[in-house]
Amino acid sequence: MANSCNKESVGQDKIPLSALAPLLMITPHEVDYENAQNYYIADTVVNQFFVLLKRRYEKFPHKYMKHYSFDSCIATYLIKGSRTEDEVLSWFKKKDFKGVSKLFLPICLHEHWLLFYVDIDDKKLLWFDSDEHSRMSNVSEKKVILRWFSEFLLPSLGHDHKDWSFDVPKDIPLQKNSVDCALFVMKYADCLTHGNYFPFTQDDTLHFRHRTFLDLYCGSICLGRSQGY
Predict the structure, then answer these.
(1) Are 101 and 119 contacting, i.e. CB atoms less than 8 angstroms apart?
(2) Residue 167: pLDDT above 90?
(3) What pLDDT shows up at residue 2?
(4) Which CATH fold topology does 43-175+183-200 show?
(5) What ranges make up the beta strands (E) of 140-183?
(6) Were both Cys, which of 2, 48, 125, 133 would link to 166 (CB 3.0–4.6 Å)?
(7) What CA–CA distance (Å, rounded) separates 69 from 87?
(8) Residue 188 near residue 115 (C-beta atoms within 8 A)
(9) In the chain, what are the domain boundaries?
(10) Each residue of 203-218: pLDDT tens digit?
């Protein structure tokens, strides 16, 4: 019976129930290392949430900023070197980025989620880390991701990377436990499709967990106050 439950998929997009289950957990302020996996949000959920952001824009193009989200596997291929930079670039077409003002790449490093964000209008490359103690870490990984965007993707789209800046923002909401990083990554991107402000804190994460479960189950992001804005 346990194996059957683990394989069960639910919702419009047939997401494994085992992947959605952590979203229904009530996260304590202090999480023991042995219990952390019970609350950890996996790549299946994170990547599908970015799909929902795309669907929302397509349904309401005048309310949200046009953006493009990469699957987290792109970062994994580049960082591990299992695919060449040119090979990864070949998977994307210039037309995919027409009119796009923001690019999102969720990244998972050692079970910690981060967001690499490209602001095309302001010519900025940004590394969002909800853990203030690790934001200056992962130097080699930063270099790999920066190199692919600045020397491969952006030039292919007609941008001169020499005019662009890189920053690790400090004035963003921070997680207060060890397991909500993925939730913060999803909410950073969600907020950035509205503008450049982040009206949430750690205190909102329980609501966001449950809201995200419902959004993923329904296959679309609910609009209005129930979303937390």
Answers:
(1) yes
(2) yes
(3) 38
(4) Adenoviral Proteinase; Chain (3.40.395)
(5) 165-167
(6) 125
(7) 18
(8) yes
(9) 43-175+183-200
(10) 999 999 999 999 999 9
What does the pLDDT read at residue 5?
46
Phi and psi torsions of 117, nearest 5°: -125, 130
- The answer to whether residues 111 and 40 touch, using CB atoms and an 8 Å cutoff, is yes
At 104, give phi and psi (nearest 5°): -125, 135
Q: Pick the closest to residue 223 from 53, 103, 67 (CA basis).
A: 53
Contact 107, 145 (CB under 8 A): yes
Q: Is the pLDDT of residue 39 over 80?
A: yes
Q: Is the distance from CB of 183 to CB of 130 less than 8 angstroms?
A: no
**How many Å apart are CA 129 and CA 174, to the nearest integer?**
8
Return the pLDDT at 135: 87
Cβ atoms 215, 221 nearer than 8 A = yes
CA distances (Å), origin 168, targets 58, 116, 139, 214, 218: 30, 10, 12, 31, 34
Contact indicator for 111, 151 with CB cutoff of 8 Å: no
